[in-house]
Specification:
456 residues; alpha/beta; TIM Barrel; 9-stranded mixed sheet; 5-stranded parallel sheet; 14 helices; 19 strands; binds N-carbamoyl-L-aspartate
Length: 456
């Protein structure tokens, strides 16, 4: 008990889990929501014009620790998360050493307990050392609460190995998240295989490399009964494959990144490696399909694939630079700016009626950034509902505030944002995790020293 009592007054509460979009006062007592209505008690924070949503949940974050501390640490990555409105991140396994056994899971949880500003859920590797041939110690990681396995960055090429991993994961009802790319077909590719790659004289990574792998993984998932999660979907064909599989009842979920929702391969024309990413930025046809897939529920979640790289690593000529972009601090603003029409912001309930094709209501956006990703991972303490007695885990943002992305002002350790200089709409003011401020007035608060997060 902290003895804390405070009220956010006059906020627009957007809580997809309850289907609520209304003006209310939200009273926080200790770590819980004490009321959400007309009551106002304790310290008052004027939230008129601000939105309160459940804390954002990122299914795909590279925190880099252990081993990549020059690019990011648990402390800096979760500071970026808090400023971006996130209360939970799922940390990818491509660390050094790889998170392929219990020791590294414990290490990440310990680092999170000591230094994190949000809950951290480690993802376990599927194969030892991300090597693709021998299974990682999935059982010992599952015993620690790891609920998702991924070799992200290293697609599992062997169908035999992935099938075996699915059979194990099925026994704990864990998720298999395979980076979907046929490495042979994509070999040597520097950006999307299309007209721009031809013009720039760079070899390409074809859309089919993703689609062939998605099709294979869906087939394997269908027969194993495992929960398959397709990360960073980037092609129109992959969206269609997932749509068809969902219609057939395959247990599949999917995510898309903010950058794949709004940047094309044209960004590469200046050979600036900040636009180099896996999967590569594609075409406007793909963007259109991804947006429609997100709007119709084929794609469940927006995930950042926050992939920090140090200046020394990233600032090389295109072919030498590692792929990856940071995203935690811009995801909400980018998607609010790009996907939510102006009239949705004016009043609770928005303009009334469905938003135009491929766009989202404000509640729809919060759903894809928070409620659905929390449901995909089964994070019952996240994603709402923001009801009386629930944890005070929420984000308070100004949906109208305009700001310009300045890489030097980012709170994470790395600067490799593709949105530098972009004018965006929507800024986080406060983030609360179980009643504790992790971001206050747009600044990260001190680390929480929380108990380690485990998968429920
Ligand atoms: N998404 C990226 O472009 N980079 C990822 C790994 C990867 O998926 O290649 C990273 O860890 O840097």
């Amino acid at each position: 008990m902290t003895g804390q009592l405070l009220t956010f007054t006059g906020a627009r509460v957007v809580d997809p889990a309850r289907g609520v979009d209304e003006i209310a006062n939200v009273v926080v007592e200790d770590d819980r929501i004490a009321s959400a209505g007309e009551e106002s008690r304790g310290l008052r924070i004027d939230a008129a014009g601000l939105v309160i949503s459940p804390g954002l949940v990122d299914l795909h974050t590279h925190l880099r620790e252990p081993g990549g501390e020059d690019a990011e640490t648990v402390a800096t990555g979760t500071a970026a998360a808090a400023v971006g409105g996130y209360t939970a991140v799922c940390a990818m396994a491509n660390t050094d050493p790889v998170c392929d056994h219990a020791g590294v899971v414990e290490q990440v949880l310990r680092l999170a307990r000591d230094a994190a500003r949000c809950d951290v859920f480690p993802t376990g590797a599927i194969t030892r050392g991300l090597g693709g041939s021998e299974l990682a110690e999935m059982g010992s990681m599952a015993a620690l609460g790891v609920g998702c396995f991924s070799d992200d960055g290293h697609p599992v090429q062997s169908a035999r190995v992935l099938r075996q991993a699915m059979a194990y994961a099925r026994t704990w009802d864990a998720i298999i998240c395979n980076h979907a790319e046929d490495s042979d077909l994509a070999a040597g590719g520097q950006l999307h295989a299309g007209e721009v790659a031809g013009r720039l004289g760079l070899s390409g990574r074809p859309a089919e490399a993703e689609e062939i792998m998605v099709a294979r993984d869906l087939r394997l998932a269908a027969s194993s009964g495992v929960r398959l999660h397709v990360p960073h979907v980037s092609t129109a064909g992959a969206v269609e494959l997932i749509r068809e599989a969902k219609a057939r009842g395959v247990r599949v979920t999917a995510e898309v990144t903010p950058h794949h929702l709004c940047l094309t391969d044209e960004s590469a024309v200046g050979y600036d490696p900040v636009f180099k990413v896996n999967p590569p930025l594609r075409t406007s046809v793909d963007i259109d399909a991804l947006r429609r897939g997100l709007a119709d529920g084929t794609i469940d979640a927006i995930a950042t694939d926050h992939a920090p790289h140090s200046h020394e690593q990233k600032d090389q000529e295109w072919t030498q630079a590692p792929p990856g972009m940071v995203g935690l601090e811009t995801a909400l603003a980018v998607t609010l700016t790009e996907l939510v029409p102006d009239d949705e912001l004016a009043t609770p309930g928005g303009a009334g009626g469905a938003p135009p094709d491929g766009l989202l209501s404000l509640s729809g956006l919060v759903d894809r950034l928070s409620t659905r990703p929390a449901a995909v991972w089964g994070l019952s303490e996240h994603g709402g509902p923001l009801e009386v007695g629930a944890p005070a885990t929420f984000t308070v943002f100004d949906p109208q505030e305009r700001w310009t992305v300045d890489p030097a002002a980012l709170r994470g350790r790395a600067r490799n944002t593709p949105f530098a200089g972009r004018r965006l709409r929507g800024r986080v003011r406060y983030t609360l995790l179980r009643g504790r401020f992790t971001c206050r007035d747009g600044e990260p608060a001190e680390p929480l020293a929380t108990s380690p997060a485990v998968h429920p």
